[in-house]
């Protein structure tokens, strides 16, 4: 495929349903229900993106974007998919403490480039996730309670808007569009690159404590109590993981249901070790990896599966996590339950204004049904997830985090819950201005007012 040249015609270079590359190009991390676009543009430059958007706008084709597929929303049927994985340049400016990252970059690349200069990005649990979408959807990272949302660190955005113009958007130059893009993600254009702030972090005291099935209840109860009085330097989460009895599961956990506490402490190791005492006192660990580690190895803290994988996932944001809210989470057999501790710097907007909502939440509780083959009927997992959701209603803020809204759950109504009501109205008004034809309606859609 010739691309990037002035004469490149996206309609000729595109991949169609009948082309042999179609399946590989549309399939990413999430296997349950991949996008089914009519046409795919495998973009290699911002120019490719601009020409693809121009053509789609001219033909009235809705547009969506995919980098890694970790955050696949409601499956697209028809329309045009722009894949960005080949746009993967990272440039660090050590003097400014910033990085310019292209649309197809994954966190591990940014982590490694930044580390050469003693810096780190506000990356999340999995270094394989796409950095741009993660950041534009909020971005709850390993240092979230200390440094806030990744979104708060956006300095400038290169984007192709629905009128097929490439724009460089800054908080001063275009405050409304900047505010809408950071938090509103794919609703206002296809972002071709971001400039983000980095933090001066080279190492952490972090890792995972893995407890066997008999200690799962104690672990969740102790962890939830422990999170009530922690410094912001400590970001942590806990998951109940039913590991299958299969060779691909790590040997010590194979066939066991395990409680996995993940900690990431930016302070001194001695202080971190002291803070962890109540957790280590829960009992013997199957594995204990917590110690001093370079930020380049931070993916080991959660040790998220590299995928690809078919899964159904839902989440709730809670304002508190009393013992009565922990009990229902101990009775979700066969599913992964994850609780992330929020609060700290996440509650205090910093940096440039953006539309990320629900900053009052103190915990994010996710439930994930793993191991679903492509096309699996989701009624059974849905019922199990709804049971948990009902049990948590008393403590729920009713909000959602855009980054954790996956698949068929990423409906317009659910997306609305990711924003403060006033902000949602402002987003729909700006959508009318920037994308009145709702060209970008196939992602986590915010409609025009
Ligand atoms: C294993 C795993 C671990 C995760 N850990 C965390 C975590 O620690 N913290 C956190 O906050 N989130 C986390 N997430 C959620 C993740 O941040 C989101 O799913 C994010 O959207 C993934 O981005 P992606 O590019 O990898 O995925 P994709 O599926 O490729 O993109 C998701 C959506 O973003 C939009 N999009 C993508 N690229 C662009 C672009 N260039 N311009 C405009 N819109 C675009 C599209 O609508 C697309 O459908 C995790 C997800 C998984 C599966």
TrEMBL record:
Keywords: FAD, Flavoprotein, Oxidoreductase. Its cofactor is FAD. It comes from the Bacteria. Gene3D superfamilies: 3.30.465.10, 3.40.462.20, Uridine Diphospho-n-acetylenolpyruvylglucosamine Reductase, domain 2. Pfam families: BBE, FAD_binding_4. GO terms for molecular function: FAD binding; oxidoreductase activity. The keyword 4Fe-4S does not apply. The keyword Flavoprotein applies. Residues 33-201 form the FAD-binding PCMH-type domain. PROSITE patterns: FAD_PCMH. This is FAD-binding oxidoreductase.
């Amino acid at each position: 495929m010739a691309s990037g040249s002035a004469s490149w015609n996206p309609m000729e270079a595109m991949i169609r349903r009948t082309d042999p590359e179609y399946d590989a190009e549309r399939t990413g991390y999430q296997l349950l229900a991949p996008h089914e676009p009519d046409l795919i543009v495998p973009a290699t430059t911002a120019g490719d993106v601009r020409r693809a958007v121009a053509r789609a706008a001219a033909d009235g084709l809705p547009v969506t974007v995919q980098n890694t597929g970790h955050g696949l929303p409601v499956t697209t049927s028809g329309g045009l998919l722009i894949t960005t994985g080949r746009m993967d340049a990272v440039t660090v400016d050590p003097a400014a403490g910033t990085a310019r990252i292209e649309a197809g970059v994954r966190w591990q690349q940014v982590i490694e480039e930044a580390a050469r200069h003693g810096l780190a990005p506000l990356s999340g649990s999995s270094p394989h996730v796409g950095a741009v979408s993660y950041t534009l959807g909020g971005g709850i990272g390993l240092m979230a309670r200390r440094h806030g949302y990744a979104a708060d660190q956006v300095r400038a955005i290169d984007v192709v808007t629905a009128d097929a113009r490439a724009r460089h958007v800054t908080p001063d130059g275009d405050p409304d569009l900047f505010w809408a893009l950071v938090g509103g993600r794919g609703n206002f254009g296809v972002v071709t690159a971001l400039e983000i702030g980095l933090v001066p972090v080279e190492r952490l005291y972090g890792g995972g404590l893995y407890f066997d099935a008999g200690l799962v209840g104690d672990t969740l109860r102790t962890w939830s109590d422990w999170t009530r009085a922690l410094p912001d330097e400590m970001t942590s989460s806990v998951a109940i993981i039913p590991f299958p009895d299969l060779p691909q599961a790590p040997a010590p956990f194979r066939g066991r249901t395990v409680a996995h506490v993940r900690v990431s402490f930016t302070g001194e190791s001695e202080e971190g070790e002291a803070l962890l005492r109540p957790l280590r006192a829960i009992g013997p660990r199957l594995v204990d990896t917590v110690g001093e580690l370079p930020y380049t190895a931070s993916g080991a803290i959660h040790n998220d599966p590299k995928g690809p994988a078919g899964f159904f996932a839902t989440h709730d944001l809670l304002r508190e996590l009393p013992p009565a809210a922990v009990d229902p989470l101990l009775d979700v057999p066969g599913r992964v339950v994850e609780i992330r501790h929020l609060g700290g710097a996440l509650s205090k907007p910093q940096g440039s204004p953006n539309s990320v909502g629900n900053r009052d939440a103190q915990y994010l509780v996710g439930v994930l049904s793993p191991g679903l083959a492509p096309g699996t009927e989701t009624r059974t997992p849905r019922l199990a997830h709804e049971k948990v959701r009902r049990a948590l209603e008393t403590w729920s803020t009713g909000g959602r985090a855009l980054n954790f809204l996956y698949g068929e759950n990423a409906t317009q109504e659910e997306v609305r819950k990711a924003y403060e009501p006033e902000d949602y109205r402002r987003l729909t008004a700006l959508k009318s201005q920037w994308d009145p034809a709702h060209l970008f309606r196939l992602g986590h859609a915010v409609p025009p007012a």
